[in-house]
Amino acid sequence: MVKAEQVVAAVLSPAPLKEASWLELSILSGISDVAGVDEVGRGALFGPVVAAAVILPEQAFPVLMAAQIKDSKQLSSQRRTQLARQICALARDWKIGFATSAEIDQINILQASLLAMRRAVLKLKVQPALCLIDGNQLVKDLSLPQLSIVKGDERSLSIASASIVAKVWRDDLVLRLASKYPMYDLERNKGYGSQRHLIALQQYGVSRLHRKSFRPCQIHF
User: Fold this and answer.
1) Facing residues of 50 across strands?
2) Is the overall model pTM greater than 0.85, yes or no?
3) How far apart are CA 51 and CA 167, in angstroms?
4) Residue 140, Cα to own-chain centre: how many angstroms?
5) What's the rounded Cα separation, in Å, for the pair 211 and 92?
6) What pLDDT sits at residue 29?
7) Residue 196 and residue 186: Cα distance in Å, rounded?
8) How far apart are the first and last CA of the chain?
9) Max Cα separation, the chain?
10) 113 φ, ψ to 5°?
11) Computed from CA positions of residues 83, 130, 60, 125, in that sequence, does the dihedral angle turn out positive or negative?
12) Could you tell me the fold of the domain covering 20-179?
C-alpha cells in the first residue's frame, strides 16, 4: 500500500517527470479512485470560474497517453473538444462545479475557485480515495484526503484531464452566452480581457455577468 508520506514526497520532488512517470503510473499506482481537480477562468473578466473533477480507471491511462494529453492551454480548441469527449467516455466519474460572477465579487477569485472545485468533487457519485488539487491551495471544508500539486496538469493525468474538461465546458457556456452580449466579442475572447473586450467595456459598461470586482470592469460613466 502506498503511504501518504511517499505520495507527498513524489509530489514535492523537483525532478521533472518523464511520460512514463505520471503520478498515477508511478507513486499513485496502488491507489484507486484518484480524482484530479482543476479550474479554469480565473483570469477572465466575464462569466463563472469553472472546475472539473475527473476519476479515471487504470485502463484509461495508456489511452490518454497515446492521445498525447497535456495541459488544456497547450491544445487547440478542436483538439481540446475531441479529448474532452474521450475523457468523459473513459472516466469512472466526472463532474463540473462553478462559482458565479456574483460569488467571485463577494468572496474573491481565489476563494471562488476553491468553491468551484469543492462543488465539483461533492457532485461525484464515486467517492474518491484521494483528490489531487491543481495549485498550491487545499480545498476548504472538504472531508476527503487531498493534496495540492503545483503545475499539477503537467504531473497528473487526472488533473490534466480535469483541466481539459473544465476548459471545454466553460468555453461552450461562454459561447452560448455570447449572442446575448454581442458587443464584448466573447466568441473570440471567451470572457478574457482582449483589446476589443476592454474597449467594449469602456463604450458600453459592464453586463450583469461581468466580474465587477476586477479592475477593468470598474467602469464609471
Assistant:
1) 40, 98
2) yes
3) 8
4) 17
5) 34
6) 78
7) 10
8) 62
9) 62
10) -65, -45
11) negative
12) Nucleotidyltransferase; domain 5 (3.30.420)
The CB density around residue 206, as the number of other CB atoms within 10 Å, is: 19
Answer whether residue 5 shows pLDDT above 60. no
Q: DSSP label at 138?
A: P
DSSP, collapsed to helix, strand or coil, labels residue 172 as helix
Rounded to 5°, the CA angle 214-133-115 comes to 45
Q: Which residue shows C-alpha cell 452560448?
A: 176
- What secondary structure does DSSP assign to 139-153, as a single string? PTT--S-EEEETTGG
Return the residue matching grid coordinates 488544456: 72
Condensed to tens digits (0 to 9), the pLDDT of residues 29-78 reads: 778 899 999 999 999 999 999 999 999 999 999 999 988 886 667 778 89
Of 16-25, 89-98, 190-199, minimum mean pLDDT range: 16-25
Task: Please state, in angstroms and as integers, the Cα–Cα distance from residue 40 to each residue in 24, 83, 171, 200, following that order.
Answer: 22, 16, 10, 23
* DSSP E strand boundaries for the chain: 34-40, 49-55, 93-99, 130-134, 146-149
Closest to 62 in 3D by CA, of 98, 29, 25: 25
**Nearest Cα to Cα of residue 48 among 96, 99, 97, 95:** 99
In this structure, the number of other CB atoms found within 10 A of the CB of residue 94 comes to: 27
Q: Bridge-partner residues for 46, per DSSP?
A: 210
Residue 29, C-alpha cell as written in the block? 499506482
Name the grid cell of 159: 488533473
